[in-house]
Amino acid sequence: MRIELTARGIFFILLAIAGIIVLRRLWPVVILVVTALIFMGALLPYVEWLVARGVNRGVAVLLVAFAVFAAIVGLFAMMVPGLVSEFQTIRDQLPGWAEEVQSRLADFGVEVDLEQRAREINWTEVLSGRAIDYTQQVLFFLFGAFTVAVMTIYLLIDAPRLARWVYQFVPAGKEADAQRLLQSMTRVVGGYVRGQTITSAIIAIYT
What we know:
mainly alpha; about 85% helix; extended
């Protein structure tokens, strides 16, 4: 078996390797862009509904974005107090739970001093040791969320021009097929995101 590589083949191999390296470098940015496109697909029907009723497109996008922001803030307002309360419960009741486990293990002849170890935990030291890591993660999350929000708003406002730009690359006579494809993608992706949102809201209310 003999393999021969032409100059053109070597060029395409090097080009593919360079593309993979660039993609790996830009992967976090790609994730943000894809996330923004998914949110655009989920929110676009609501924007178009407002635009069809005479609302300016920019105002419609801002109204939808404000509604989403209010929902997210409300969600965090419900979650954070519960998380803090759960942490305080764990901190206060951990020695009692440790004592119960210790007594159960003693019935099987296993002697461990779990209760004393639980009482000796320095929660301030534990939290301060993780504070920097948590702060970095929170800042990274907030930066990513802000970037996605800005890109989503831009895509929603510029959706008609973006569609015209995409249609430039569609062969003549295939515009209708491309339009149906984009509409189907928007409907499927948007429907999935909206369905997950509704499901999560129902679970949150039930909880």
